[in-house]
User: What shape does this take?
Amino acid sequence: MLDVPQFKTSLLKGVAWRVVEAQHIISTNKLVDTLDEQEILENILEESKPKVPDECSKLDYLLSTPFRYVTYKNGSRFRREGKTPGVWYGAEYEETAIAETIFYRFLFISESPETSFELKDTNFTAFSAQISTKMGLDLTQKEHAIYLKKCSHLTDYSESQLIAAQSREAGIEIIKYLSVRDPNRFPNLAVLNCNVFTSRKPTNRHTWRISFFKNVAHAHREHPRKTITFKIRDFNHDPRINIV
Assistant: This one.
């Protein structure tokens, strides 16, 4: 058993945004000639994947996918590598989710020096989900400041992974913390239990087209229209980001 801290739980309710690359249809329709064939291929691929946990089985795949893979190849902020429970990462604001996405693409560029800096425009889907729980851990509150600091390291996730494990022991279902990628430091949300989703499907979907260059990225949303620009210098506090 873990030595579980006396976390103060609170009601966490509202919207969480997540961004995924819009390749889930494009990647298969290149392999087939008709929509019927594509549906057959999609079903075959679905059957080859791990089973969705029963408690998540009625959710749209955009909500359930992080919980179906019990073996996690690389550790993340609140999930250890190996056979560990799933975590669905989201953000309170759509723009924060976009900032997180752009950071990781800049990180890929920095760690892959042979890759062309001027990448093709890429389409992403930003979607929101309704969440609600009385067993929330809000690390942005003053009484949890020490835990927020432990969960905010740029590259070392050992402390935050321990806090996630302790949170599960305490029955906590959502962890609210501050994004270290978003220059505005707006909140992120780590969903530890898929029962917190109050709707089976995403409530909003927006298409973003992001253009990546050597030192800048432009994100465009058509409806409702919005443009955000991030410079690689916005993320240079992370030691892995190389500015040329």
